[in-house]
Specification:
Elements lengths: L2 E8 L4 H8 L8 E3 L6 E10 L4 H15 L4 E12 L4 E8 L5 H17 L12 E7 L5 H10 L3 E7 L1 E10 L2 E11 L1
Antiparallel strand pairs: 1-3, 1-8, 2-6, 4-5, 4-7, 5-6, 8-9
Helix pairs in contact: 2-3
Organism: Haloarcula rubripromontorii
Enzyme class: hydrolase
GO molecular function: 2',3'-cyclic-nucleotide 3'-phosphodiesterase activity; RNA 2',3'-cyclic 3'-phosphodiesterase activity
Length: 187
Amino acid sequence: MAKRLFVSVDLDGLEDAVASVQARFDGVSGLRLTDPEQAHVTLKFLGDTDPDRVGEIVPALETAVEDSGVEPFEVEFGGFGVFPSLSYISVVWVGVRDGQGGTGLTALHDAIEEQTVAMGFEPEDHEFTPHATVARMDHAGGKETVQNAVEHNDPDVGRLLVEEIRLKESELGPDGPTYRTVESVPL
């Protein structure tokens, strides 16, 4: 049975800060908050993958880390953003402060993209924007509240030392996805 896989940098140690940022959206109609314990930056979504391929994915990730030239680095998370736009919101996220680790995340993403596409995984169809999803909009009931919060708030989430990337499995359930680390690859 296929595993739903992705590659991430997890926001370990920032769970309380993520929950604090999410508190601004408590009770907003149509908005579903993500689990702060599972906050992460997706570097590459692999999708449904034959479990037998994990043995080739991990070495490819090790090569990608080596090719990226990225050593452990700090990232500062803060500020709000949305996808795809403020007029039609499907995802609310916190981003990376300018010059505060985005270059390292982008270099990792680019190297992972190159390795995984060479393995036959689908290429990304959008530009990489380092972010951690904090909520998903199911309907537009509270859209104005979300727009106002995003436009008029610039929350600090905190700093994170990135020392590894993780191959994760996403298991979809009635209460949303649950993520499990399959393998960690150090920088």
